[in-house]
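I am still getting used to backbone structure tokens and would like to learn alongside you. To get us started, please write out a protein record for me. Start from the sequence, derive the backbone structure tokens from it, and show both lines together. Once you have written the record down, we can walk along the chain together:
***
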Amino acid sequence: MTNYIKNSIVLLLLILGNTNYSQIRTLDSLIQIIDNKDAYIVLLKTLSPRINSNAGAKIIEIGKPATPELIKILENENKGVIAHFILSEIWKDSWNETLCCPFQYIGTEEIITLNNLNIYIEDNKLNSKLEDLKANKERWIKLWES
């Protein structure tokens, strides 16, 4: 009977380990797919971050366990904005949407701050400067660690 219990525990640990490993691999492959071009902002009474990405939606379904992997890409100039939007959706209970529409302008570029990240909009494309992405990453790390 003792061997049966030991074997059952080992089998359970293997299943749990494989499930966790599989989720990490799935998350990694989803993160490879997301891109800032799939991020947009809805302007109503508030500024609302949105994504048009199946991969992003699946990451949101994973929820808070996806946070460390998303934090890793927050400094990526092609993925940082969408990662911020995904994190903002996952952690929506920890921040308030900004009232619409405090835009700033530099030439043809619009600048808006959404959940503490300066987002630059030109030709309907969203991006952020590296120094803004780095500061944003630090804020998300603090939230994750608290």
In short: The first helix runs from residue 2 to 33.
